[in-house]
Design goal:
Layout lengths: L7 H14 L4 H8 L3 H9 L6 H10 L12 H4 L20
Helix pairs in contact: 2-3
Length: 97
């Protein structure tokens, strides 16, 4: 199945759910990823603080995939009043990430 991820908290929940669905502990996944259990707990709690490469490696390790979907309603999902990524020449806020 595909799960949309629009916020860091959604990614946090998805990473934890993928690990648990595979029946793996944080220590087991951490060892496979080359980090401690404590570091994996930090990554799961705040994936935005991890590098993109680390998050991608973790997703792949958990037999998941990341997709980027071209969605015509991107600006409609931006309900917080922040600048939209769809506007040319404007900066995208990373405050939520």
């Amino acid at each position: 199945m595909r799960y949309p991820v629009d916020t860091p908290s959604q990614l946090r929940l998805l990473l934890r759910a993928l690990r648990k669905a595979r029946g793996l502990s944080q220590a087991q996944v951490g060892a496979m990823l080359g980090v401690t259990q404590q570091r994996l707990a930090q990554i799961e709690a705040r994936p935005a603080a991890a590098t993109f490469d680390t998050v991608l490696r973790l997703i792949a390790l958990l037999k998941g995939r990341m997709y980027v979907e071209d969605s015509p309603d991107v600006s409609e999902r931006n309900t917080s009043g922040k600048k939209s990524a769809s506007r040319r020449g404007s900066e995208t806020s990373t405050e939520d990430w």
